[in-house]
Request: fold
Amino acid sequence: MSETTSGPSWVTLASNERVVWNGSPSLRAAAGSLVISLLLVGFGVGGIMIAFSRGEALINALSVVLIGIGTVGIVGLLLHRRSVQYVLTSEKVYKKSGLLSCTVRTIWLSRIQHTTITQTVRERILSYGTIDIETAGGNASGFRLANVSDPEYTSALLTEHGATKPRTNERTSNRTVTAQPHAY
Reply:
C-alpha cells in the first residue's frame, strides 16, 4: 500500500505524518461462522418454501427462526469487523474499537520493542494472523492487531517504519540511539 497524507476521521495526523497501512480484521477469520450463518438462512428460506407448499405452520415457524439466527450471525460478524480498525502511520500505530462508543489506542513506533506474529495452521492456510506489539513500559503498554490479513507484510511495515525512528535512551535523555530492526 502506498503512503497517503490523510487517514480515517478518528486519526489525527501531524504535519509530517503519513498513513502507511490501514486495515481491519480479515473476513477470512470469520469464514466458518459466515458459512454457518449463510447455511441457516438458506435452510430457513428452503423451509419456508416447503411450508407454503404443504401448508405446515410448524416448519414455517422454525424456518423463520433459522433465518433470524442466520441473519443475526451475519450482521454480528460484519459489525464486529467494522468495529475494529487499525492504522499504521509513519510515526504511530492506532487501534480503534467500538461503534457507538469508541476507544482509540496509540503507540509511537519508536517505543515498539518487539512484534510477534501468531498463526494457527488454519490461519496460515487462509493468510491471516495476529500481531502482538510489545512496547517499553511493561505488560499493559502494547496491544494486539487481531486477525490481520497478511500479517508478515504488516509486521514488516512496522519493523521498517519503526526501525528508522530514533529511540531516546531512558538513562541519558540527551543521547539518541538508533533502533534496531525487530525479529518476528
Observations:
- Strands lie at 19-23, 84-89, 92-97, 103-108, 112-118, 128-135, 143-149, 166-168, 176-178.
- The helical segments are 31-54, 57-83, 121-126, 151-163.
- The chain has four helices and nine strands.
- The chain has two domains: 19-26+86-178, 30-80.
